């Protein structure tokens, strides 16, 4: 059995990613640790509980973690996925069940990995603040992980939050830097460009969410307002990154972890995060020639079996 811990800033794509993990066969989610990002950390905790409630998995413990980056103010909420992170369409009365644990997310992460040494796959779907703090408290943590899957960063110098930086890395560049330098376990990265190049057509997205299940109805509802804009053809189809379609960013990291055959090619290389400068801050620099002479190489995902991935998403939404 695969043991997972998911660290998330639960927005819309995180919700789908969590559902993929919950639905995967032979997988046990030990806990979900929350971080600020798409919305404030309290909303993130609530959103995770909502997803677990829809999937009838409220026995999975949820831990509240970092409310902001290591350095500087909290940035980047804006209207990305609405103020609440799930598209501002759910009523307060749409109750979620269960309770947030008292233990801090960073302590829980360290404890759960130490209790299951060598067995845990850690999946990071938001800013990497909790992971950076965890390695400061327990420097041996990375060597006790089985592997690490990250959605974040970029590989072609293109960004969605700034011209050159991806959202998760940009929100806490120092934490991204610490994680890529110090988590020397097997590390797999789904960059922003990779996820955009493998976006789903609206036809296949509709096929996913029009299934007669609670999880599909939930996904349909939370994407109804906020992703609607990219259905409009005002964005050029020729632009491979910002073009037409639904990008399930975080779900790629989960899919790669639970079924490695979804990823058909990765580049094994050195990477580093820029923490200085203005335009370049938060950018992941890919160094295939290893001019940095780093001992630790990561796997940067390059191509995927989109058909297999779509089928995985479709099956996941049949969970409840
Ligand atoms: C990442 O930023 C967040 O908004 C998404 O949830 C995803 O993790 C994409 O850049
Ligand atoms: Ca996310």
TrEMBL record:
<protein>
    <recommendedName>
        <fullName>Inosine/uridine-preferring nucleoside hydrolase domain-containing protein</fullName>
    </recommendedName>
</protein>
<comment type="similarity">
    <text>Belongs to the IUNH family.</text>
</comment>
<feature type="domain" description="Inosine/uridine-preferring nucleoside hydrolase">
    <location>
        <begin position="4"/>
        <end position="309"/>
    </location>
</feature>
<dbReference type="GO" id="GO:0016799">
    <property type="term" value="F:hydrolase activity, hydrolyzing N-glycosyl compounds"/>
</dbReference>
<dbReference type="InterPro" id="IPR001910">
    <property type="entry name" value="Inosine/uridine_hydrolase_dom"/>
</dbReference>
<dbReference type="Pfam" id="PF01156">
    <property type="entry name" value="IU_nuc_hydro"/>
</dbReference>
<dbReference type="InterPro" id="IPR036452">
    <property type="entry name" value="Ribo_hydro-like"/>
</dbReference>
<dbReference type="InterPro" id="IPR052775">
    <property type="entry name" value="IUN_hydrolase"/>
</dbReference>
């Amino acid at each position: 059995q695969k043991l997972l811990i998911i660290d998330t800033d639960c927005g819309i794509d995180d919700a789908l990613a969590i559902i993929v993990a919950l639905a995967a066969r032979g997988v046990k989610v030990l806990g979900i640790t929350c971080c600020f990002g798409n919305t404030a950390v309290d909303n993130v905790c609530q959103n995770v509980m909502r997803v677990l409630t829809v999937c009838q998995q409220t026995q999975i413990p949820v831990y509240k973690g970092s409310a902001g980056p290591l350095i500087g103010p909290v940035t980047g909420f804006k209207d990305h996925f609405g103020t609440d992170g799930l598209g501002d369409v759910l009523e307060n009365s749409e109750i979620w069940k269960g309770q947030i644990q008292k233990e801090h997310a960073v302590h829980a992460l360290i404890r759960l990995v130490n209790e299951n040494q060598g067995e845990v796959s850690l999946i990071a779907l938001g800013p990497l603040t909790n992971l950076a703090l965890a390695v400061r408290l327990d420097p041996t943590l990375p060597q006790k992980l089985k592997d690490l899957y990250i959605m974040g960063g970029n590989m072609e110098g293109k960004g969605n939050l700034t011209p050159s930086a991806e959202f998760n890395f940009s929100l806490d560049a120092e934490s991204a830097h610490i994680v890529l330098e110090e988590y020397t376990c097997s590390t797999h990265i789904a960059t922003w460009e990779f996820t955009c190049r493998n976006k789903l057509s609206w036809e296949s997205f509709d096929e996913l969410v029009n299934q007669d299940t609670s999880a599909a109805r939930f996904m349909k509802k939370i994407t109804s307002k906020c992703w609607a804009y990219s259905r409009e053809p005002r964005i050029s189809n020729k632009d491979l990154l910002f073009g037409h379609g639904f990008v399930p960013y975080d779900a790629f990291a989960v899919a790669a972890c639970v079924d490695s055959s979804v990823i058909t090619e990765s580049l094994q290389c050195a990477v580093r995060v820029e923490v200085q400068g203005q335009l370049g801050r938060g950018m992941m620099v890919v160094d295939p020639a290893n001019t940095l002479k780093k001992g630790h190489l990561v796997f940067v995902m390059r191509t995927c079996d989109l058909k297999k991935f779509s089928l995985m998403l479709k099956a996941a939404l049949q969970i409840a």
